[in-house]
Amino acid sequence: MPYCKVKNANIYYEEIGKGKPIIMIHGFTPDHRLMSGCMEPIFEDNSNWRRIYLDLPGMGQTKDYDQICNSDDMLEAVINFIETLVPNQDYLIAGESYGGYITKGIINRHKDRIGGAALICPLIIPEHKRRILPEHFVVHSDREFMDTLSEEQVSDFSANQVVLNEYNWKRYSEEIMAGCKIADYDFLSKIQRNYGFSTNIDELVFDKPTVFTLGRQDAVVGYIDAFRILDNYPRATFAVLDRAGHNLQIEQTLLFESLMREWLERVTEFGF
Known about the structure:
Blueprint: E1 3-6, E2 9-16, E3 20-25, H1 33-39, E4 49-54, H2 71-85, E5 91-96, H3 98-110, E6 114-120, E7 140-141, H4 143-146, H5 151-160, E8 163-164, H6 166-180, H7 185-192, E9 210-215, E10 236-241, H8 248-251, H9 253-270
Parallel strand pairs: 3-4, 3-5, 5-6, 6-9, 7-8, 9-10
Antiparallel strand pairs: 1-2, 2-4
Helix pairs in contact: 1-6
């Protein structure tokens, strides 16, 4: 299994394809399967990219991360990882939820090396009580399928998705829950107590092709807060999708994949 030893962690990663690198960063608690599950279909007809999917410390199969105490340390570990795997090379970056927060921190440090960014339901405000969030509700439920699940499965699925059907359950189980089941929750609790960066990362202007995909029904990070930083991304598409919660990439697959393909086209047109 491929590991990359950095200062405060031994980071597990999977690499697919050859070409220009794209760093893929999942959210808080799941693992790299969240990102590979939603991003790999985009490259079926466009394989000239080196896709690098990592497990953040405390998640997936990454090891030896006990010295990491906060999001600053987490950011440092990911930057060390990037500098080891793609030294002195330009790259693209994509991050989901907390991975989107880490992505913004990386942009702050590697602005000139990053040719474009994709932010999927990104965490904008670390402090939960300060976020502007819609109330969680289920947009659609396939009752016939839901009757096949256990009471515990129904409760978990209903709390974390807004479109409840067999397709979404399969992907939610394989791409989200599979990683959550092996996460180090004691370590993650420590990180949550020091969730925000010590410096402001939302003042930098990033003028490369960017895409924000936001769920209209996202009750975890919301969508309104992202518009506070819209002017910092003059080349950004901002898409707020109905029928989409915090797992937008699953609930609105076709729109998500279309937006990602269009982002790659803009990146290529830009000269990356």
